[in-house]
Amino acid sequence: MVSQVEEDIIENDFIILKSLGSGSFGEVKLACHLPTNTKVAVKVLERNQNSVNVITSEVEILQSLEHRNIVRFFHVMDTLKLTYVVMEYVAGKDLEMFLRDIGYLKEEEARPIFQQVVKAVHFLHQRQIAHRDIKLANILIDRAGNIKICDFGMAIQVKEGQMLTKACGSLYYMAPEIMARTPYDGLAVDMWSLGVVLYVLVTGQYPYFETEAHALYSLITSTKFAIPYHLSKPCHIIIAQLLKVNNLHRITICQLLERSWLSHNEEHAEPASKNIVSRVMATMKTIGYTCEEIMSSLRHKQPNNKKINDFQYSKTQVEL
């Protein structure tokens, strides 16, 4: 049943500014959370018999994730016809748009970007979560070069050894076993997609290109992808290990992290959490909450509680 409080929150606490584009199963809009004057991304999903389970799964996965390279979940609100998923807004562009302006990146430019993507996927795979739609358009980059993976509409939590059958993903990033309509390992298909992402970052082209799935599958299984002369051997080796047609020979995310090509850059330092919390407390007090209310909301982490959401919005505001 739809809560009147949630209806009021949608009407009174948010103003839609513009459309940011369409993701899997829904449109994403830029909105302003009026109580904190914070910009947020709102994914608007139509509710029907076919979509309820998908929406529930996406929200449950987003609620369980907290990582600097994954878009942050704030709040979910249901109406009779729509679900609104409120998430962190990344002021920048996706990598697909980013590359349109420059063609491709030098390896030393691509490395810190890919490094952050790998960290996010490692975080997911440690928790047995397969994203299943990793692509340039689902990787956001801000003006400082910080990366966030978004759009978990096709994500799924799997059990050890579980094989999946639903065909999903974007054609040029899709692993051959999905195109072959055979049961597949959800984590392994993410690794194939990472190979495509890295290849496009350093070449500006897809490793395999056909407009139809059957033709693309035939190309992948019968030819080797082209190796541009400017690629270093360590970079080429990583791509080759990710784009193994036989998924049993494809490297895992833990093996990828061990590759020397990725270790050239120092890891980004995590923000100082104590400083952030103290700044958040100060900001929340100006909104009118007491210390007891703030800490109670934070401890219980109730996603439908208005106080915890104001806290989360405020936390993002001071981090930016």
From TrEMBL:
Keywords: ATP-binding, Kinase, Magnesium, Metal-binding, Nucleotide-binding, Serine/threonine-protein kinase, Transferase. Its EC number is 2.7.11.1. It catalyses: L-seryl-[protein] + ATP = O-phospho-L-seryl-[protein] + ADP + H(+); L-threonyl-[protein] + ATP = O-phospho-L-threonyl-[protein] + ADP + H(+). GO terms for cellular component: cytosol; nucleus. It comes from the Eukaryota. Mg(2+) binds at N138, D151. It holds the Pfam family Pkinase. ATP binds at K43. The active site is at D133 (proton acceptor). It is an enzyme of class 2 (transferase). Residues 14-262 form the Protein kinase domain. GO terms for biological process: intracellular signal transduction; negative regulation of glycogen biosynthetic process. GO terms for molecular function: ATP binding; metal ion binding; protein serine kinase activity; protein serine/threonine kinase activity. SUPFAM superfamilies: Protein kinase-like (PK-like). Belongs to the protein kinase superfamily. This is non-specific serine/threonine protein kinase. It comes from Cricetulus griseus (Chinese hamster). The lineage of its organism: Eukaryota, Metazoa, Chordata, Craniata, Vertebrata.
